[in-house]
Amino acid sequence: MSNLFFVLKKLIWNFTVLNYFFKKERNNRDKKIKISEKVWLWRNGFNGFHKRMYRLTKENINQFIGSYHYKKYHRNYNGLFHDVIDNKALLSFILPDELTCDLCLIFEKGVFTGSNIPIEGSVEKFIYKELEQRELICKPVFSSLGMGIVKLNKENVKRALGYYRLKNRSFIISEKVENMPYAKQIFPDAGNTIRLNLLRDPDSCKLVLLFAQHNFGTRKSAPVDHTLNGGIETIIDPETGVFYKTRMKVNGKLRFVSEHPDTGKLIDGIKIPNWNSSLQHLLDLLNKEVWLRYAGIDAILTETGFKIIELNSLPFIEDFQEEFPLLSQPVARKFFKKAGHIIRD
Hints:
- The relative contact order is 0.13.
- This protein has three domains: 71 residues, no CATH class; 74 residues, Dna Ligase, domain 1 (2-Layer Sandwich), CATH 3.30.1490.20; 156 residues, D-amino Acid Aminotransferase, Chain A, domain 1.
- Helices cover 33% and strands 21% of the residues.
- By secondary structure, it is of the alpha+beta class.
- The protein contains 13 helices and twelve strands.
């Protein structure tokens, strides 16, 4: 019976992986790729659009990870802690207080179940009282790309809570984390999050920064900042904290820009204040969280350091690999080989 259960579980996972792979293929169709080239790419675990994006050839293809294998070994990256990482409701309880929001109200299937601070009386009255002092954000426990995020005010609290209760969805309410002045000057009305892709070196057991990117909102995307919603993304030089290769989507295509389209503020060449010390402090704290092996961290840099907004167990790697082939880094090759990937020279 146990063997049958194992076989069924494996079949379901294989179907999930294939569905993930072909969904990416449908959503990013490249009509200029020949059928013969697509077959070659698929056999190696890549989608058709990766050929142009990564400039793939037979000589360099082993320097990249394709989306099929990336998803296939997904659950091996964090092992037992895989499901914990994607649960936003747990952040305030599994991460150091210094890295998380001061307030986190948890609603399971629309019903208030608890918070990281004591609350007396009606939770709705508490929310109204908090709104007199600071801005609050409401978002689903399981979501991505900024989907479902609502900035609360006294006029929309009942409507927002009623919507989630009606949909029987789990969500959290937390305070809006304030950016440092540099980010608010570029655009003040969005989260302006920093994405940090980290993995734990199998030899040293220390976390390593693979890639850093800063997102900025626009009038079209606010209060979220993802490019799919109309936001802007810029790569952060991990050594210096300087922005470069800033881009946004225009008519469905990514276009390089150097300034913010709404505020006119320069982005390319700007250096994040206290970048090195803030990043090192974050890594020092997270190194103690041995359960965290691989993640995309969405964080906001405040005057007192990083505040983590959410963790992602399977962060997007297209932007990263377009700039830096993932398997060109020895530490990444070791990590993904240990996770089950077949790494070819």
